[in-house]
Amino acid sequence: MTGITRHQSVPVQGAQVVTRIARILQLVGRNPAGTPLAEIVRDSGLTRPTVHRLLSSLAAAGLLDHDPVRHTWHYGPEIFVMGTVAAHRYPIEELARPSLLRLTEETGESAFLSIRRGAETVCLLREEGSFPIRSFVLHEGLRLPLGVASAGLAILAYLPEPEIEQLLVQDAAFVERWGENHSPQAIRANLEQIRITGYSVNPGLILEGSWGMGAAIFDRSGQPGWALSLTGIERRFTPDRREMLGQLLLEEASRITQSLQRARV
Question: Which tens digits make up the pLDDT trace of 223-246?
Answer without folding.
Answer: 999 999 999 999 999 999 999 999
